[in-house]
């Protein structure tokens, strides 16, 4: 069994490639829910949805989030009547949020709803939220603009403010009281390989590690954990991972990622562009494997998945 720690787009791409080279039902993805939000009375789980849509072949490759062939009738009408328009929900995507919110209101857990949604979309891999309890990433801005709170919710930082403002610190609200979702610790303990997907180390993988028990379970399987650096030649291929690393005092490089992950990642796969860092990474006690990591299409993602599996 293969376990993957997953954030949004980078994880979704790698997992879409992975399921072309292994039996999809052998894959369990533990997904970040620190990005979740409530908007228009709906519970939205962006990373769970990004991974689900990618595995169902429904992902919108133009935006990197949401559903392919999307239409925007509801969003346009919401905007016309003065509703919150900064976080765009497409018509097809809305069905997911309506279903999730209704089932949660009936008392289903987020894991149960996720299993129902993935089954309905024909996804054979197991998707598990990191926790059924709410854990929310909160971002403290270094220089809040006038009228802005110093601490904002993740999607306010990421989408409404365009992840353009420097960050002073982060916290994962609710983490202390959260428990790993059912099956998470068991899956990590039983996995032949645990893949840490090329997701943002700070705001995608960080929240997963904040759930009590998960880091401990990973440390115990360190020799089976393979990370993929989301930083290539000092930059994030997508999103603010490089800036966030720097702003929070880390090095924005594959070596910086290795330093962060060294306690629980036994092997780190880095891009060919970063080959010169391999020695310094190995000096940390992290095995280093060099391979092409840029996933321009599913075939490249499948090659990366094979390299990850081959690294163990
Ligand atoms: N990202 C944006 O940049 N703008 C949006 O309006 C937006 C809407 C949205 C709706 C549903 C969903 O599942 C994701 C959405 N995202 C949007 C992406 C999301 O904010 C981030 O990519 C993830 O949270 C980071 O992994």
Question: Which properties best describe this structure?
Answer:
312 residues, alpha/beta, Rossmann fold, 2 domains, seven-stranded parallel β-sheet, 13 helices, 38% helix, globular, binds ligand FO1
Helix content: 25-40%
Sheet of most strands = 7 strands, parallel
The CATH superfamily of the largest domain turns out to be CofD-like domains
CATH top-level class of the largest domain: Alpha Beta
Mean pLDDT: 97
Query: What is the total number of structural domains?
Result: 2
Strand content: 15-25%
Strand segment count: 14
Rounded radius of gyration (Å): 19 Å
| CATH architecture annotation name of the largest domain | 3-Layer(aba) Sandwich
The molecules bound to the chains, other than polymers, are: ligand FO1
Estimate the global geometry from the Cα principal axes: globular
CATH topology-level name of the largest domain: Rossmann fold
- Give the SSE order as H and E letters: EHEEEHHHHEEEHEHEHHEEEHHEHEH
The first-to-last residue Cα distance is 13 Å
The low-confidence parts are none
Side by side, the strands of the main sheet go 5-2-1-9-10-13-14
Structural class: alpha/beta
> What oligomeric state do these chains adopt?
single chain
